[in-house]
Amino acid sequence: MSTFSCLIQADGIAAASRSELEGRLQTLHATHYPSEQIDVSWRLVPDGYMFTEGRQSTSSVISCRLQYSPTLAERERYMRGVCDLWTDVTGCTDHEIVVAITPAEPPTV
Amino acid sequence: MPLYRTLVRPGLIDRDQRQAFANDVVEVHCAVTGAPPSFVHVVYADDDGQLADGQNAMVLGTIRHGRDAEQKAEITSRLSAALADYTGIDVATITASLVDIDASYTMEGGVLLPEPGSPEEAEWKALGATS
Q: Is the whole-model pTM more than 0.90?
């Protein structure tokens, strides 16, 4: 099973939209990897516990641990899809979203 | 990205100190790497049992690979010192480390992160400057 770990602001729109976001992530994942269920966990960050550029953060960080090893083009499409659904549901901008993929076979860096 | 996770024993850091240290993370990371500040994230958590005995704080930075050992050592030593300075925590009980990631596995600002030093990086830096 592939897993999503989402770090979001506790008092932000994403926190209030978790159910919809989870459903949309499942739908997105199924378009890339049909029939696999995903597990989504949430970490809600209280006010004053996350900063971006030294200011109170409004960002979401979505970490996807996949059971697959997508190519560069595949993971770009996948992460683009996550950004699109996130902006659609929450109204945030691309600059407030970080998406990271950990593949089944992590690259050697 | 970068994302600096900072784990501290409960009660050892307050909001103003978290803000001050977050500012230092931006300053140090950008000074050493040249990365745009708008991409620097710092997230804190109160320790829930992950810290070892004798350890009061841990800073774990996830950064794009391509930084050399000297750059990494400068970042971790300056951040440990800054956190100790702001909180009064003994610097010997602070652990700071960095984990490299392959840039192309992360998207931020709607684009894949470029490799450090790549031709795409200049465009990305401009994006960060305007965000």
A: yes
